[in-house]
C-alpha cells in the first residue's frame, strides 16, 4: 500500500529529528519540511498541509519550553495529534442501533465501489447482531441490480429491486417501506452513480433522500483518486447531507491523501475503509489506531478488536488474554505461526503485525516466509514445555541448543536464528504495548 510510504516518510522525518544532537528551530523546521513534502506527495491538499505546519509550530514553541522538557517527545506528540485532527472532523457520525430501524443511503460516483461496499456494510453489521436488508435504487447502470442481488445472495442478506421499474425514487420508497414493515433494523439504499459529477445524479440523489429520509448518508470514495477527492467530496456534500465517508480500494495504489481530503471537504468522519474486493476486506476506521499504524507504531488495541471480529467468541478470551496480559513467550509465537500457516482470517491479521509483515512474511516472498515458519515450528517442537513457556528463553544454554538442533534434525545455526527472530519479534511486541500505553496516556491528556 502506498499509504505505508507516507507513514514511512513521516516516521523517518521524526526519527531524524529525534537523532539530532540538539533539537532547535532548525531541526524542527527540517522535520516539518520533510513531513510537508511527504504529505503533498501523498496527494493531501496544500491548504491542509499548511494548516498542519502552522498548528505544529504554534503548539511547539521551543523557546518557551522549560529547560529539561523532552522536546523530541513534544514534537512527536504534536505531529501525532495534528495528523489525528486532520482525520477527525470532531463530530461523530450517526451510529445505527440494533432493534431500532435505521435507513442508510449510499452515494458516490460509478466505479467507486459503492455497490460492493453496501453489501460489506450490511455483512459487517449482521455479524454484530443487526438485521440488515439491501435496496437497489440504481436504475441507471445496466446490471446494477444483478450485481447487488448476487452479492446479497452470497452473503444471505435480503434485498429489494426491480428489472422493470425505472424510477429510482419509487423503488427506494417501496423497498424501505417493505423492510420497515418486516422489522429490519438496518435498511441500506444503494443509489445510482455516474461517471462524473453531473446535475442529474445530484437531483436524483436529492429526490431519493427526500423520499426515504435516511438517518445517515454515506459517501463512498475511491481512495486512489488523489487530488480530485476534495472537489468530488465537496460536490456530494453540497447535494446530499453526507454524514460519513467510506474510502475504498485502500489495498491498491491509494496514497491516502484522498481520505484526508474527503474528511476536510465533508466535515464527516471516515467510518470504514475497503481493503479488497472480498466481503471481509472491510475495516472499521478509527483515527488514533490508524495514525499509529501509519507511523509504524503498531496498534495492539486494533489487533485485539480485529481478533474479536474474526474469531469464534468461545476461543477469543484465551488468546486476547495472552496477547494483552502475558509476556511474549515462544509458545505464543508458535500459536501465531500456526495461524499464519493456514493464512485464515487470523493469519492475515497477524501478518499485519510489524514483526511478521515487515520481516517474516514479505509481499512477493510468501513461499520463503512460510518455509521459514515451518522450519521454526519444527525446532520449537523439540523444545520442552518449560522452554516454550519461559519468559526468558534467551537463557537457553549451548548444550540445550545443540540438543534441540539434533532433536529437530536442524543445524545449531538454525536454532540460534530462530531464537534471534523470536527476540526481534518479542522486542517489537514490547514496543507495541508501550505505544499503546502512550496513546492511552495521550487520550487522557486530551
Ligand atoms: P459502483 O459502481 O460504485 O457500485 O462500484 P462497484 O461496487 O461495482 O465496484 C467497482 C469495482 O471496484 C469492482 O470491481 C469491485 O470489486 C472493486 N472494489 C470495490 N471495493 C474495493 C476495494 O476496497 N478494493 C479493491 N481492490 N477493489 C474494490
From TrEMBL:
GO terms (BP aspect): SRP-dependent cotranslational protein targeting to membrane, translocation
This protein's GO CC annotations: cytosol; endoplasmic reticulum; signal recognition particle, endoplasmic reticulum targeting
Catalytic activity: GTP + H2O = GDP + phosphate + H(+)
Keywords tagged on the record: Cytoplasm, Endoplasmic reticulum, GTP-binding, Hydrolase, Nucleotide-binding, Ribonucleoprotein, RNA-binding, Signal recognition particle
Subunit note: Component of a signal recognition particle (SRP) complex that consists of a 7SL RNA molecule of 300 nucleotides and six protein subunits: SRP72, SRP68, SRP54, SRP19, SRP14 and SRP9.
Lineage, uppermost ranks: Eukaryota, Viridiplantae, Streptophyta, Embryophyta, Tracheophyta
Function: Component of the signal recognition particle (SRP) complex, a ribonucleoprotein complex that mediates the cotranslational targeting of secretory and membrane proteins to the endoplasmic reticulum (ER). As part of the SRP complex, associates with the SRP receptor (SR) component SRPRA to target secretory proteins to the endoplasmic reticulum membrane. Binds to the signal sequence of presecretory proteins when they emerge from the ribosomes. Displays basal GTPase activity, and stimulates reciprocal GTPase activation of the SR subunit SRPRA.
Protein location: Cytoplasm; Endoplasmic reticulum
Domain writeup: The M domain binds the 7SL RNA in presence of SRP19 and binds the signal sequence of presecretory proteins. The NG domain, also named G domain, is a special guanosine triphosphatase (GTPase) domain, which binds GTP and forms a guanosine 5'-triphosphate (GTP)-dependent complex with a homologous NG domain in the SRP receptor subunit SRPRA. The two NG domains undergo cooperative rearrangements upon their assembly, which culminate in the reciprocal activation of the GTPase activity of one another. SRP receptor compaction upon binding with cargo-loaded SRP and GTPase rearrangement drive SRP-mediated cotranslational protein translocation into the ER.
Molecular function terms, GO-annotated: 7S RNA binding; endoplasmic reticulum signal peptide binding; GTP binding; GTPase activity
Matches recorded under SUPFAM superfamilies: Domain of the SRP/SRP receptor G-proteins, P-loop containing nucleoside triphosphate hydrolases, Signal peptide-binding domain
One of the Pfam families matching this protein, by short name: SRP54_N
Species this chain originates from: Eragrostis curvula (weeping love grass)
Name of the protein in its database record: Signal recognition particle 54 kDa protein
PROSITE patterns given in the database record: SRP54 (PS00300)
Residues covered by the SRP54-type proteins GTP-binding domain: 269-282
Family: Belongs to the GTP-binding SRP family. SRP54 subfamily.
PANTHER family recorded: SIGNAL RECOGNITION PARTICLE 54 KDA PROTEIN, SIGNAL RECOGNITION PARTICLE 54K PROTEIN SRP54
